[in-house]
Each structure stands twice: as structure tokens, then as C-alpha cells.
Amino acid sequence: MFGLNETDSISTIQLVETKNNSDCGSMSEDEAKLAISCSYWLEGVLLTVVGCIGILGNLANIIILNSKSVSNFFNTLLSILSFSDLIFITLTVLDYSLIRGKQSLIRGKQSLIRGKQSLIRGKQSLIEVNNLLSEVNNLLLEVNNLLIEVNNLLSEGTYPLCNNI
User: Fold this and answer.
1) What number of other Cβ atoms are within 10 A of residue 126's Cβ?
2) Where are the beta strands (DSSP E) in the chain?
3) Distance CA 61, CA 111 (A)
4) What residues contact 93, with CB distance under 8 A and at least 6 apart?
5) For 9-44, how does the pLDDT look when each residue is reduced to its tens digit (9 = 90+)?
6) Which residues contact 114 (CB under 8 A, 6 or more apart)?
7) pLDDT by residue (tens digit) across 57-98?
8) For residue 109, what pLDDT band results from cuts at 50, 70 and 90?
């Protein structure tokens, strides 16, 4: 739907599990998928694109500000600021796009496994309930047949207890 496949739906089940824990601030499965998609596009794609533009801009600043024709103390301070910003942007882009992305994929796979296990347990419970309802239905049919038989015996007057009345 948003350019994501099953493995990219990072922690849908974790976000949906919040709904089961409390009603306040909970979100549906569709809302959770939208939140994950927005997180992917903002933290994964947009942050990487803006970070790359920032890296290129800071490299240009460092090159221009360190040229001999504009060399003074203030430009040296700006060059140091650009260098520290360059390091920060590089580490941030690496953190969000590589490290957190891999961790999120691992958590997403674990959540999907837990979700599948829950579905299997739910299906087994439904099968057990269905079997119990079938047994109750059979018992009710037997009781109904017995009541019909007792009613026939009472109407014929051949029931053994009717002789004492």
C-alpha cells in the first residue's frame, strides 16, 4: 500500500497489541500500518535525503571556508561548526537508516511470529468451543427425544408411575 512489503511492516503487531492493553490512545491495525509507513518515510527516506544534502553542504562549507582567500578567525569557527555538524549528520543518518532499521526489522519479524502463534492458539480455542457446542447440541437432542417419549407415555397412560396416581 505504501511501498512496504510484509517484512517492512516493522512492528504492526506491537502497535496493535497496545489496543488490547488499554482503550486510551489505542489504534487499529490500519492506523498502526499507517504509523509504520509514516515512520519509514520520515525516519528512513526523508532523514537520509536531508542528511545527504546536509553532508554535501557542510563539505562545501569546509572547502570554501578553509581556502586561503577567505581565511580569518570567524571563518575558522564556521569551518569547525560545519565539521561538527558533518559528524553529527553522518552519525544520525547511519543510526536511523542502518542500525535502527535492522533492529526494527528483527522486532517486526519477532512480532509477526508472536502474532501467528496467537492466531493459532485462537483457532485452536475456536475449534474446542465448536466441539463443545456440538456435544451440547447432541445432549439437547437426546433430552428432547426423552421428553417426547415421556410425553407419549404420559398421554397413553402406560407410564408405570401413572398407575399409582
Assistant:
1) 10
2) none
3) 45
4) 47, 48, 51, 52, 55
5) 444 444 444 444 555 567 777 887 787 777 777 777
6) 13
7) 999 999 999 888 888 889 999 999 999 999 999 998 888 777
8) confident
Question: For the chain, which residues make up each domain, given as ranges?
Answer: 6-121
138: three-class secondary structure by DSSP: helix
Query: Distance (Å, rounded) from C-alpha 110 to C-alpha 97?
Result: 20
The shares of helix, strand and coil residues in the chain, as percent rounded to the nearest 5, are 85, 0, 15
CA 58 vs CA 6, 67, 69, 79, 81: distances in Å: 37, 14, 19, 8, 9
Residue 165 makes CB contacts below 8 A (sequence gap 6+) with: none
The total of other beta-carbon atoms located within 10 Å of residue 15's CB is: 21
